[in-house]
Amino acid sequence: MPAKRTAFIAVLLASVAGQAAAARAGHITMSYFAAIAFVLAGLQYAFTLNRSWWADSGRGIEPARDTAQPVMAARNAEAIGLCYGWGGLSLLAVYQLSGVHWQHGWQYGLGMVAIAALVMAAARLLRGASWTRAHYRALGWASAAHGLAALAGVAWLIGSGKAQSLKGDWAANVVFLMGGLLIAGVTVMGLKTAMRLEAGGSKQPV
């Protein structure tokens, strides 16, 4: 799994560089390509994290589920944290290095980096946590709300016409749109795994 995480982070950095280069060239399509590459890599990474649990019959031994719950919650939280990290670094790279100007670029960029750091710290706590079933259910509801909020943001961007903006915030809208879709996708996969574990999975995490 560390090798897959390393490859995902490499795509993350390449996407950030690609968006900065696209912004410098004023090439919106190229910016979308760079962002979409990261989204596809992120979905593949999340799928790889979670897929081994989905084929399970759902009838297994209790200790395996109890062992897997903190591990899988941490892994999916880390994936979400990397999504925010990509968003923050993309905004900072675009608005600090490319010459494209948007007054809120650095604010949103630093904000997303801070969120990424908090989520990654929470993931470390989850990995060593000894929570009850009620705790994991509450975490599931919070994750679902987060995913829905991301989708709502995407819907607002599209419905308001902001996604088609040609002003200085166009590069930020690429990040918000693609990042929102990715977070929603990762959330769905994580919730599916959580439901399988709630039912009692028999496989050990890989």
Could you characterize what this model shows?
By secondary structure, the chain is mainly α. It has one domain (2-199). The protein is built from six helices and no strands. It has helices at 2-25, 28-54, 62-97, 105-127, 133-160, 170-199. α1 (2-25) runs parallel beside α3 (62-97), α2 (28-54) packs parallel to α6 (170-199) and α3 (62-97) packs antiparallel against α4. The protein is elongated and about 50 Å long. The termini are close together. Mean pLDDT is 86; it is low at 57-63 and 201-206.
Number of self-contained structural domains: 1
Number of strands: 0
Largest sheet: none
Nearest-angstrom radius of gyration? 18 Å
How much beta, percentage-wise?
under 5%
The proportion of residues forming helix, as a percent range, comes to over 70%
The coarse silhouette is elongated
Mean pLDDT, nearest integer?
86
Cα separation of the termini = 8 Å
Structural class comes to: mainly alpha
Low-confidence stretches: 57-63, 201-206
H-E order: HHHHHH
Helix count from the secondary structure assignment: 6
